Amino acid sequence: MSDTGVPARRSAVYLLDEILDEGRLMSELLGAGVLDKLPVEDRARAARLALDTLRGLERADRILQKHLKKYPPSTVRNALRVGTIELCQGAAAHGVVNAMVELVSRHNRYSHLKGLTNAVLRKVAADGPETWNTLRVPRLPKWLRVPLVQAWGPEAMAAMEAVHFAGAPLDLTAKADASAVAAATGGIVLPSGSVRIKEAGQVSTMPGFEAGDWWVQDAAAALPVQVLAPQPGEKILDLCAAPGGKTMQLAARGAHVTAVDDSAGRMARVKDNLTRTGLKAQLIVQDARVTAGEYDAILLDAPCSATGTIRRHPDLPHAKDGSEFSALIELQEQFIDHAWSLLKPGGRMVFCTCSLLPDEGEVQVDEALLRHSDMQVDKAALDVPGVDAAWRTVEGGLRLRPDYWSGLGGMDGFYIACLRKAPA
Ligand SMILES: C[S@@+](CC[C@H](N)C(=O)[O-])C[C@H]1O[C@@H](n2cnc3c(N)ncnc32)[C@H](O)[C@@H]1O
What we know:
Layout: H1 6-22, H2 26-31, H3 40-55, H4 57-65, H5 74-88, H6 93-105, H7 114-132, H8 142-152, H9 154-166, E1 170-174, H10 178-185, E2 188-189, E3 195-197, E4 214-216, H11 223-228, E5 235-239, H12 245-252, E6 256-261, H13 264-277, E7 282-285, E8 295-301, H14 316-319, H15 325-341, E9 343-353, H16 362-371, E10 375-377, E11 398-400, E12 414-421
Parallel strand pairs: 5-6, 5-8, 6-7, 8-9
Antiparallel strand pairs: 1-3, 1-4, 2-3, 9-12, 10-12, 11-12
Bound molecules: S-adenosylmethionine.
Domain SAM-dependent MTase RsmB/NOP-type: 132-422
Keywords: Methyltransferase, RNA-binding, S-adenosyl-L-methionine, Transferase
EC number: 2.1.1.176
């Protein structure tokens, strides 16, 4: 990292400007290379500062509110937010204040606000850290909170917000032996067989990464393949496959996998992942709605709101406003119907989304059952290790929420159902 910490902090402020004002996602910004010019440590620091600021945004704003008569332009406001988060996390006051004052003073439009930056952050340094823990756990923005409270109730919502605020541990899926991966990486084996690491460093330097012994995958995201229960030699279609976590799980169990995704860029990551792990699958870049063939089993991990992944992606509720969701729900319906036409009689299809919205899970399955007289929900398929009976839903699926396993560090929100086609 640079001595002053200014370049990393400036980049964190830039990320916040783009996320909060332009509605861009962190993944999109990192994919576009906005941090690529920074040294590696500065890149990690900038991303961490931006993510921490987004998680604690409501608290930072409450602390800053006391010291601001009116809001400064958003770049300066975001610099104050980053500074507040650092101060409340216990960083040395002089380092944070000096760096933020320097950052603002070098700004070509807002250099006149360096005095305000200095004065406000000094006040935050004096009272912010002790105020921090007296403030409520940050809430989701209303556009998302309202439908989630309606779906799961206020207590569950508060529990999910507590997990979002805490952030997420690192979960790994072992190619073969979870106990060996846990021993090598200092993790624990979760009830479902994933390996969880509380304090992870840089992933690519961890033991077993180069050898391809494991890949990063949230414990909840690893469950759909367990529910599908692939058998060696089965012909399995993995629809919407990139970046390939589930493709690798299917291939590791000896299935003949055809992986389809319409993003060439994301499919390149599937290829890299397969190469690193020494696993095989046929990769096809195409729209899932034109895929052809006949398959013993299908995994449909449909594109969705990704509202189940907020503890890892705290930018999402700030960058989005829900306006894209009805188009996604419509797309999911089309994917289900087309995928169903590719399934052999007697075959099974797992439909899943990393969403907390029933419209992208429970409701999709209810409606698919009405459209397809040869479709049934296979409830027995949910009998896999680590799955709690309380997570089962009325229509026969599995509802996973971030507040489940909260003592172990939570899990991503997911919906999973196994749909069985009538025999010929
Ligand atoms: C939830 S992600 C899949 C995650 C993946 N199954 C895994 O486990 O790593 C959804 C994927 O759907 C893909 N997608 C979106 N629209 C698509 C379409 N029309 N046809 C095929 N893939 C599509 C996206 O590129 C994205 O990679």
